[in-house]
Design brief:
Layout (H helix, E strand, L loop, with lengths): L4 H4 L9 E4 L10 E4 L13 E5 L10 H11 L4 E4 L10 H10 L3 E3 L6 H35 L4 H9 L6 E5 L4 E4 L4 H8 L3 H7 L1 E7 L2 E8 L6 H44 L6 H9 L8 E9 L2 H6 L6 H22 L3 E6 L2 E8 L2 H23 L3 E5 L9 H19 L4 E3 L5 H8 L3 H21 L3 H10 L4 H8 L3 H15 L6 H17 L1
Parallel strand pairs: 2-3, 3-4, 4-5, 13-14
Antiparallel strand pairs: 1-5, 6-7, 6-9, 8-9, 10-12, 10-13, 11-12
Protein name: Purine catabolism regulatory protein
Family: Belongs to the CdaR family.
InterPro entries: CdaR-like_regulators, CdaR_GGDEF, GGDEF_dom, PucR_C-HTH_dom, PucR_C-HTH_sf, PucR_dom
């Protein structure tokens, strides 16, 4: 334990020491002891020293001691030992008041004490304390070294740390999105579990686990009531733990990247139909302890316009792009894995592909629809990006999963064309849009939609109007002019005028169901071509 002023007063060789002022500072730690032989001693203070004096340097002007104490306190001195009745009979009241205000201990030493009788026992205690501290550090080092040699995991590191400090602790691994708690700290765990990481960092003391200016996690302390003398020992233990955690997370990342490389290659071979036998699938799957007993659905999650968003703002942001993408993928994987018991996944560029196993096609689709809506909302709120999701059809055999993958990709493509970004599109629900995609690029399709929309498109260009967008809003709102007006934030009378003008430009009656159908069909073909 660190030697404090309070502990110093308990040294068995001392008798008759009396605290004259600054009793609130008895927890100050003493790292050295020295003698004052000049009034400007504060210029050489390094912090933690306690000084002894006979008062000779201020015998002619005892009030000088007030300024000396102020400057000693500012430089981090721990206290003052003074022999009264030699050159100073008593401390001036101003000196006592300043020491009490600063919580700077002033202690009288008996008249018959030599400086050697004061200094030697204090130095012995300090040396013993340093030896104890060194032994403590060595014990911690041995414990963590043994843990590393034996391939101890992150939880074991936290458990080992908890053996050396008397504070509740937790480690937030932000790379793998995992939290590790001290085993005996259930109450602390309950508190932290109800808070976001941002709230935790605002409420508790923490240490950053950082390598090459990149943050990988946070070591959180519960800020329990700890005596000042124990804090230094806790800091030693925490510093050792931080070093081991850095090594541990780098080891985990290296292993994860190697495993991911081979796992992604296996899934890629499945999705690209490169494996021709079920036996080979089972053999390679066994390496990851995977089984494909149920039917599967392929789900593709793609970050919308990801790189362009950053390239427009700044250049050379490859590292930031990787980090944001990893954060999105991490959140995505965590939510999907928490919703489905049987999930395999791989990352391809700006996309992540999930193979979701389920015994029921109907239940799988309902559950996917529910979780993907929640996922898109949370990514948009927390990470300020949008994702588009495509879901292929349910396949009863893993050997047909490549077909579901192609369908999921088509679903994303068509979903973006029809609805824009930030949507979930199910291939089985695309219906006529799948057929429209096939014919939308033909000359006859272009001639068809131009025959209905070209006049309006050219009018907008020539007059800088947005009548085509007004028509699209009408269609989206099932030709309800009031609802379309609300969507466009315009007055109902303005909408009525625009509708009349659109009918005049198109030169046909938009009340006619036949023309309505052809307009809707033309708008869909136009969207698929844009």
């Amino acid at each position: 334990m660190a030697l404090t002023v309070k502990e110093m007063l308990k040294i068995s060789d001392f008798d008759g020491l009396e605290v004259l002022a600054g009793k609130g500072g008895l927890d100050r730690i003493i790292s050295a002891v020295n003698v004052i032989d000049a009034p400007d001693v504060y210029n050489w203070i390094r912090g933690g020293e306690i000084f002894a004096t006979t008062g000779y340097i201020v015998k002619d002007e005892p009030n000088m001691l007030k300024d000396i104490i102020i400057k000693m306190d500012k430089q981090g001195a721990s206290g003052l030992l003074i022999k009264l009745k030699r050159f100073i009979d008593e401390l001036p009241i101003e000196v006592i008041e300043v020491a009490d205000k600063l919580n700077f201990p002033i202690i009288s030493i008996p008249f018959n004490y030599t400086f050697a009788k004061i200094i030697s026992p204090i130095l012995l205690e300090i040396v013993n304390e340093q030896a104890t501290k060194l032994f403590f550090s060595e014990q911690i080092h041995k414990s963590f070294t043994k843990l590393v040699i034996n391939n101890g995991d992150t939880q074991q590191i936290i458990d080992t740390l908890s053996n050396f400090i008397n504070e509740d602790i937790a480690f937030y691994d932000i790379y793998f999105d995992e939290v590790y708690f001290q085993i005996s700290s259930d109450r602390f765990k309950e508190k932290l579990s109800s808070l976001s990481l941002k709230e935790v960092l605002e409420r508790y003391s923490y240490y950053t686990i950082e390598v090459d200016e990149k943050i990988y996690g946070y070591l959180i302390k519960a800020d329990n009531e700890v005596e000042k003398k124990d804090m230094e020992y806790n800091e030693i233990a925490l510093e050792h733990a931080m070093t081991v955690l850095k090594l541990d997370i780098q080891k985990k990342i290296s292993s994860y990247q190697i495993e991911t490389k081979y796992r992604d290659q296996f899934i890629q071979d499945l999705l690209f139909n490169s494996i021709k036998s079920l036996e080979e699938v089972k053999k390679r799957a066994s390496l990851y302890e995977w089984e494909f007993n149920d039917g599967l659905v392929t789900m593709v999650i793609d970050v919308d316009d990801f790189r362009n968003k950053y390239l427009e703002a700044e250049k050379n942001l490859d590292r930031k792009i990787r980090e944001v993408k990893r954060t999105i993928f991490l959140k995505t994987k965590k939510m999907i894995k928490s919703s489905f018991a049987d999930v395999k996944y791989a990352t391809f560029g700006d996309s992540i592909v999930f193979l979701i196993g389920h015994s029921s096609k109907e239940e799988a689709m309902v559950e996917i629809n529910s979780i993907t809506d929640k996922l898109r909302r949370e990514v948009k709120k927390d990470i300020e990006h949008t994702i588009s999701i495509g879901v292929g059809s349910y396949k009863s055999s893993i050997m047909d999963i490549h077909k579901s993958y192609i369908e999921a990709q088509k679903a994303i493509e068509l979903g973006r064309m029809i609805y824009g970004d930030d949507v979930t599109s199910f291939y089985d629900e695309l219906g006529v849009y799948g057929l429209l995609k096939e014919i939308s690029q033909s000359n006859s399709a272009k001639e068809f939609y131009n025959s209905y929309l070209l006049n309006l498109i050219e009018y907008d260009k020539e007059n800088d109007t947005e009548l085509l967008n007004t028509l699209k809003s009408m269609v989206r709102n099932d030709w309800n002019m009031r609802e379309a007006a609300k969507e466009l934030f315009i007055h109902y009378n303005t909408m009525k005028y625009r509708f009349k003008r659109i009918s005049e430009i198109l030169d046909f009656d938009l009340q006619d169901p036949k023309h309505k159908f052809n307009v809707v069909f033309s708008l869909k073909l136009l969207r698929l071509n844009q």
